[in-house]
Design brief:
The complex is a heterodimer of chains A (about 350) and B (about 375). Chain A has about 350 residues and is of the alpha+beta class. Helices cover about 30% and strands about 25% of the residues of chain A. Chain A has three domains: about 35 residues, no CATH class; about 110 residues, 60s Ribosomal Protein L30, Chain: A (2-Layer Sandwich), CATH 3.30.1330.10; about 170 residues, Alpha-Beta Complex (Phosphoribosyl-aminoimidazole Synthetase, Chain A, domain 2), CATH 3.90.650.10. The radius of gyration of chain A is 19 Å and the shape is globular. The longest helix of chain B has 17 residues. Chain B is globular. The chains are: A alpha+beta (about 350), B alpha/beta (about 375). Chain B: This is Hydrogenase formation protein HypD.
């Protein structure tokens, strides 16, 4: 029995944390056997084809509600795949889109989603070149599910992947944390926090290009979506066998996100972002990369949040504002709001 | 919500920590009763900043952790029924029963929903008149008023398809039970601020007097906790078994009279089994006879359940402060938040989960 504690899929298997990783490691990969990917398994594969290095990625989108402050499932479907490609340093080029629609879904709603996808694709400079549509019985689905896949080209000399994180790297974040997760949650649960939190959904390949243009040897890029910064950093620490040390005071968590998380008993580090990236860059290059990030529209709030260290390999540790330390662990499955 | 930042100011915290070091002349062991305080202490690393001689013992004040297995199994049985919409706070969903958890029931087709307030469950009941809506009403004196109000409203509005699965527990009898234990090492208590904001502080002087322990009503932000600890050590050093309120911005001595009146109307005191600890006389609330028709246990026939705790789990000793989480042989091995053997590993307020999530030593 490869998956220890549940005989069936539970929500946590889609949470982007430890349970999702186990499903891949213990069910999908053994099932694929020799047809599975060799080496590192990430959100994006880089394949050398005819002398060109192609980045290839796919992502499914099931967000509820489909429209939320700052965006919609259409924006996410384009930006999510664009960003997965961008995190390998690639220039995204072409996307596919497959729809699974529930019987009864309003055409007007689907139209709004299609328009949002078109607008997001134009903004990102990519084309939607192929697709598919399926319809399931009323009650078998939940409105609209979108799966996109995308390809892009990785520039010569660029090698960005989790395994390259190295002790001495500065860890940078491109801006404020937690906005997307809180925007969707507050919309879903009808919660308000005085000010409206808007999703940060955005395409990040332009920001990545600006970072690479500095000539810095960027080791790792990651967009901390599901599972948040906690999951992203834990995966990187594990993949590279390095430790991560964060300074809690340097984490940019906006007041309204912190308030919402406090109220619900959530950790802002585990909340999803859709328009932010984490970068591992050799410390001597950090300042110039930060400068380039801050000059870009999607990196204005860029700052250093920590350091990659040789100690405690595979683990992420934060120094608390009070001077203590705590481990930032890999989220397990779904985040559970606390009772009191 | 600016007040939250103000109560975690690092400079003020450093000053309080200095004062605590200055006032401490010998070893002391105190218990923070509430799981929210445990979480905050470990999350901010507060215990690492205290004098080596000051030990924080983590108490049983995590409602998710102490809800008895039998009640969890009843919840699982009720939630699996096709006519039921079962509503719960989020962190109850992964608490293991004898066989599975509520996530498992949901995955098998049960209609299990996370709500943020019992009133949301009542709303669901009104929207779904052909279904039975059950709310899992657990927790200490803190969560009880909202549950009481919901049942009260259900009756006022004539909503007959709503019921409450109740397993409320009370802090003062738990403090007494801990002090009566022959292995007790607790010399003082940080009382749970939010419980006192409902119930006031008047239940505590008799306990302080009877057991000779200082009791300091304490809040949850880092500065609140440090101030509670500072006042507690000051009382201990002076040999004074008295009650102090270190959380006056939320707690009045008389508590919240409106909430208490509602509680008296809807609930009555009953004996209650605490998971891992056992039965404590007069330590819980159940629906009073006036509201018995809203009791889910009576509405659904869920008798004859056989419960089985993991033989490896020592959460009972953890909840009584007799064992630190990482001293348990199963900690981090058979028992992780991913595969919890006991509820203390599930709730973010559970001592085992807090240690697992935030402590380096325990992983390496």
């Amino acid at each position: 029995m490869p998956l220890r504690d549940t005989p069936a899929i539970v929500l946590g298997h889609g949470g982007g944390g430890a349970m999702s990783a186990e499903l891949v490691r213990h069910l999908f990969l053994p099932g694929y056997g020799s047809a599975g990917a060799p080496g590192e398994l990430g959100d994006c594969a880089v394949l050398e084809i005819g002398g060109t290095r192609l980045a290839f990625s796919t992502d499914g989108f099931v967000v509820k509600p489909m429209f939320f402050p700052g965006g919609s499932i259409g924006d996410l479907a384009v930006n999510g795949t664009v960003n997965d490609l961008a995190m390998s340093g690639a220039t995204p080029l072409h996307l596919s889109a497959a729809f699974i629609l529930q019987e009864g879904t309003a055409l007007a709603e689907l139209g709004r989603i299609a328009e949002a996808m078109g607008a997001a694709a134009r903004a990102a400079g990519v084309r939607l070149v192929t697709g598919d549509t399926k319809v399931v019985d009323n009650g078998s689905g939940d409105g609209v599910y979108v799966t996109t896949a995308g390809i892009g080209v990785v520039p010569e000399g660029v090698d960005i992947r989790p395994g390259r994180a190295a002790p001495g790297d500065a860890i940078l974040i491109s801006g404020d944390l937690g906005a997307h997760g809180v925007a969707v949650l507050s919309c879903r649960e009808g919660l308000t926090f005085g000010t409206e939190v808007r999703s940060d959904t955005a395409p990040l390949h332009g920001l990545v290009a600006a970072m690479l243009a500095t000539g810095a040897d960027v080791h790792v890029l990651r967009d901390p979506t599901r599972g948040g910064v906690a999951a992203a950093l834990n995966e990187i620490a594990k993949a590279a066998g390095v430790g991560v040390e964060l300074t809690e005071r340097d984490l940019p968590v906006p007041g309204e996100v912190a308030d919402a998380c406090n109220l619900l008993g959530l950790d802002p580090l585990q909340v999803a972002n859709e328009g932010k990236l984490v970068a591992f860059v050799p410390e001597p290059h950090a300042e110039q990369v930060l400068e380039a990030m801050r000059a870009h529209a999607y990196g204005k709030g860029a700052r250093k949040i920590g350091t990659c260290v040789p100690d405690h390999p595979g683990m992420v540790v934060a120094r608390t504002a009070l001077g203590g330390t705590r481990v930032i662990s890999m989220p397990i499955g779904e985040q559970l709001p606390r009772i009191c | 919500m600016k007040y939250l930042d103000e109560f975690s100011d690092p400079d003020l915290a450093a000053r309080l920590i200095d004062q605590i070091h200055a006032v401490t002349t010998r070893p002391w062991a105190m218990m923070e009763v509430c799981g929210g305080q445990t979480h905050s202490i470990i999350r901010h690393g507060i215990d690492q900043l205290l004098p080596d001689d000051v030990e924080m013992i983590h108490g049983p004040g995590c409602p998710v952790c102490v809800t008895p297995l039998e009640v969890i199994d009843k919840a699982l049985a009720i939630a699996a029924r096709p006519e039921v919409i079962f509503c719960s706070f989020g962190d109850m969903l992964r608490v293991p029963g004898s066989g599975q958890d509520l996530f498992g029931v949901k995955s098998a087709g049960g209609d299990v929903r996370v709500v943020y307030s019992p009133m949301d469950a009542l709303k669901l009941a009104r929207q779904n008149p052909d279904r039975q809506v059950v709310f899992f009403g657990i927790g200490f004196e803190t969560t009880a008023p909202a549950n009481a109000m919901t049942v009260h409203q259900a009756r006022r509005l004539g909503v007959t398809n709503f019921s409450l699965l109740v397993s409320h527990v009370l802090v003062p009898p738990a403090i007494a039970a801990i002090m009566e234990s022959p292995r007790c090492r607790v010399q003082a208590f940080l009382a749970a601020g939010h419980v006192c904001s409902v119930m006031g502080t008047r239940e505590y002087p008799p306990l302080a007097h009877k057991y000779g322990v200082p009791i300091v009503v304490t809040g949850f932000e880092p500065l609140d906790i440090l101030e509670g600890i500072r006042q507690t050590i000051t009382l201990l050093e002076q040999g004074r078994a008295e009650v102090r309120n270190a959380y006056p911005r939320a707690v009045r001595d008389e508590g919240n009279p409106a909430a208490m009146a509602m509680l008296r109307d809807v609930f009555e005191v009953t004996d209650r089994t605490w998971r891992g600890i056992g039965e404590i006389p007069g330590s819980g609330w159940r629906l009073s006879s006036r509201y018995r028709e809203f009791d889910a246990e009576l509405r659904f026939d869920v008798g004859g359940l056989r419960t089985a705790e993991s033989p490896l789990c020592r959460s009972g000793e953890v909840l009584q402060g007799l064992l630190k989480p990482h001293e348990c042989a199963a900690f981090g091995k058979q028992c992780t938040p991913r595969t919890p053997l006991g509820a203390t590993m599930v709730s973010s307020e559970g001592a085992c989960a807090a240690y697992y999530a935030y402590r380096l030593v325990t992983h390496s």
